[in-house]
């Protein structure tokens, strides 16, 4: 029973990330509510309201048809206009900031909820429209249902106003950066909390373990921890996940090691627990946040955009994320009952820092203001505690590379004197 629950939960986690999930739920609820109202109309709800509160009921078939037709037409036009604006937002974000930001913007639940409200209201009005008998007497008109259709249309109008408000926020780079940062911070804090619980466990050397290859191509997005943990306990084995999250894995590349040799049935079972995707989300892989913020900085400092203000803001968010990453080790474990069963690799700090700074140095080494901001970032990070002393060594090496590149680009004496001051401050 627990295994079935885990499988269902895993399926739910996968499907809820799809852009059509919440709109589909809203749409089905609109259809279901329409049938419920049809049943209530057959039970005489409109007749009762005509006798007691006639002002709430539309009891003319032609009027009801006209009202619902106008509501449906207006709602469809509103929905088309709203999501034309979403396309404009996505195009502008891709052009001005980075195409890598698009999956995070598309998956915004507020926009999905608003689309769902539109769809459920449209479908409700359509099905109520079918139930109207304009040539019958007044009791055959679903008057109360028509009134609800009008109210749902009013709700959609307010949802449209809220949508205009959110879309005007979503286009701002500060909002985009904060959203990326918050998602990555939550992921890192969750990993740090898990690491505290599992740090006391040891894991054997996996050099001679059995390697198994992947059957799919795609980005290694995630794996079902509960299912894989249950598998390890049932088969009395340990597993090491070889690739880091977010890396593109080709078919035939080893993806995990097992302490014990596994049969074909067990391999098929494990492959179901490993998730691949053609898209990347920060909530699944915090390293993507570093990539996205780095690309925003590089795009802002490119000659076509030339927006150092955005670069300076992005460096602040990058500093906070690096500070959190310094508290995490390069490997993590998944355990239960005082035993580590699964070893998970992550991008090591030195590689992450180098990849980020290599891109930033290319576009920012000519700007003394941005270089100064980066040196402040290094100074702050060097003063923070780290899970490994090697992290501080990596920071010093990257600071030296930044200063070296900046000195090769800058010629103004004042700028060079500032660089000398920064070198002394960083003890380079």
Automatic annotation (TrEMBL):
<feature type="transmembrane region" description="Helical">
    <location>
        <begin position="144"/>
        <end position="164"/>
    </location>
</feature>
<feature type="transmembrane region" description="Helical">
    <location>
        <begin position="20"/>
        <end position="40"/>
    </location>
</feature>
<keyword id="KW-1133">Transmembrane helix</keyword>
<keyword id="KW-0472">Membrane</keyword>
<feature type="transmembrane region" description="Helical">
    <location>
        <begin position="111"/>
        <end position="132"/>
    </location>
</feature>
<keyword id="KW-0812">Transmembrane</keyword>
<dbReference type="InterPro" id="IPR018723">
    <property type="entry name" value="DUF2254_membrane"/>
</dbReference>
<feature type="transmembrane region" description="Helical">
    <location>
        <begin position="64"/>
        <end position="90"/>
    </location>
</feature>
<protein>
    <submittedName>
        <fullName>DUF2254 domain-containing protein</fullName>
    </submittedName>
</protein>
<dbReference type="Pfam" id="PF10011">
    <property type="entry name" value="DUF2254"/>
</dbReference>
